[in-house]
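Lab meeting, item 3. Inverse folding demo.
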């Protein structure tokens, strides 16, 4: 199989950029509660906030909220971290999750703790990428290097290419996100991702993926809907198309159920 250690490390590294910064502020973004609206919690995959979702045009019947990253505890597992994030969710009302990239991985783990009516993944994975213990140890060793931090935070031709950032606007966004990256949180996420061993996709999951995604090649995932020419940043670059799909999927479930 062509999936070698270089590609695995690249995948893990850029998935973890989803964690960018781990603020310890407000847990839930302001949103007016509404019994008639479906609560939809978005988990960013490319930054500390909702910048990457900025171009989406979502149905007004959806009550959109954004999960905020928090600092991981010492030696905290991905599962325990997801359980802590789940406390930001109002489980007294019907809700759905939307996870982008690494946020999709976290969404799958959150779904094991709470009961979303549906989980939608964008440019993400529904199961773990198998890495041998040797590769996992090598990733840990590489992250100990003092050169790892500037390398992971670098915005250059390679990162632009892998993210599919082709326009000046997208490059500016990606550069700003990388600048905001909290290195300690990034390294924690990398180690946890290298050992993510989920073998079966969760129930009620819907996966959207692009054919041109270089960070998570479509050959290693099994999406429910494929976006031709969609790269890892298609939620931003092809926002109109993604918005149409999301609006159809997210509003197809009655919030009163």
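The presenter then showed the designed sequence:
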């Amino acid at each position: 199989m062509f999936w070698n250690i270089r590609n695995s490390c690249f995948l893990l590294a850029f998935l973890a950029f989803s964690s960018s910064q781990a603020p310890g502020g407000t847990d839930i973004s302001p949103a007016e509660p509404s019994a008639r609206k479906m609560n939809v919690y978005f988990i960013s995959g490319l930054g500390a906030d909702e910048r990457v979702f900025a171009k989406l045009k979502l149905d007004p019947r959806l009550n959109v909220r954004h999960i905020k990253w928090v600092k991981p505890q010492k030696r905290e597992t991905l599962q325990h971290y997801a359980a802590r994030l789940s406390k930001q969710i109002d489980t007294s009302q019907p809700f759905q999750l939307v996870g982008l990239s690494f946020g999709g991985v976290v969404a799958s783990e959150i779904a094991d703790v709470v009961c979303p009516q549906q989980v939608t993944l964008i440019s993400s994975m529904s199961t773990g990428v198998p890495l041998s213990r040797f590769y996992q140890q090598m990733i840990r060793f590489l992250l100990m290097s003092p050169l790892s931090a500037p390398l992971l935070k670098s915005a250059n031709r390679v990162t632009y290419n892998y993210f599919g950032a082709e326009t000046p606007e997208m490059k500016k966004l990606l550069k700003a996100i990388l600048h905001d990256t909290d290195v300690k949180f990034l390294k924690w996420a990398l180690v946890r991702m290298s050992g993510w061993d989920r073998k079966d996709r969760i129930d009620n999951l819907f996966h959207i993926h692009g054919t041109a995604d270089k960070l998570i090649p479509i050959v290693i995932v099994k999406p429910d809907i494929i976006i031709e020419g969609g790269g890892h940043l298609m939620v931003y670059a092809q926002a109109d198309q993604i918005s149409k799909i999301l609006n159809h999927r997210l509003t197809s479930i009655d919030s009163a159920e």
